[in-house]
Amino acid sequence: MNVNVIFCGLEFPNPTVLASGYLGVTGASLANCTRHDCAGVTSKTLFLEERKGHPNPTVLTFKGGMINAVGLSGEGIKNAGHEFEVYKEQAPNNPMICSIGGKSIDELVECARIAEDYPIDMLELNFSCPNVHDEMGRPFACDPKMTEDGMRAVRKVTKKPISVKLSPNVSNIGLIARHAEAAGADAITAVNTMGPGMLIDIHMRRPILANKVGAWAQWPSNPSR
Ligand SMILES: Cc1cc2nc3c(=O)[nH]c(=O)nc-3n(C[C@H](O)[C@H](O)[C@H](O)COP(=O)(O)O)c2cc1C
């Protein structure tokens, strides 16, 4: 049975795409996901420069799902070109969606410009990471104007399809999505992790994540897990 999907002008061999940050940060590990039937992949979010992220522990599983406060660690888009080349060599028929972020619109635009030189098929703008408030303030996706301004600025520097990744932690996600669309977004990625949340070690009487708070994803099924 042919389950090909054309999405944003790109051909995907089936309707599944790996979400950002989950199962790989290198080109080789992302290509490995395609050997297990991921039709396309999203890279870990890259900022302009290398970021260390939060100290460990950063990811925990619990009865209700997985909580994380990774803090957007990554090598920086300036240094990531090789990983995209490795990916394309190993998975030429599986679209690569490059996730980028920025503390400011200028940084975001600079990331998009650099990504133009890499073999990527689509951009995802991570406007919604919940674990870096102390450093970056409210995510762009909590504000219709920031979402629109950020999207519009990136639209000027690339013709590639763009998806804006939204936050579930807002009162009217549809409004934010419409502002992204008005600024030229081709798609919406729904959604980033929910939060903040905290797991507490009741014996130690303190939070388990080094960042104290994190955001969570629910298990898709089997709530007793
Ligand atoms: C360990 C971990 C790391 C993540 N890193 C990123 C990231 O770098 N960029 C991003 O946009 N989303 C990141 N996410 C969010 C996921 O891409 C996804 O949006 C989220 O888990 C909700 O989707 P789900 O309910 O299908 O799990 C991360 C999630 C987890 C659990």
What does this structure look like?
The chain has about 220 residues and is of the alpha/beta class. It has a single domain (about 15-220), classed as TIM Barrel (Alpha-Beta Barrel). About 25% of the residues lie in helices and about 20% in strands. The chain is built from six helices and 14 strands. It is globular. The protein binds flavin mononucleotide. The site of flavin mononucleotide has 17 residues, from strand 6.
Provide key terms for this protein.
225 residues, alpha/beta, TIM Barrel, 6-stranded parallel β-sheet, binds flavin mononucleotide
- Per the CATH scheme, the topology name is TIM Barrel
Oligomerization state of this entry? single chain
Mean pLDDT: 94
- Helix share, percent: 10-25%
* CATH class call: Alpha Beta
* Tally of strands: 14
Which stretches are low in confidence, meaning pLDDT under 50 for 5 or more residues running? none
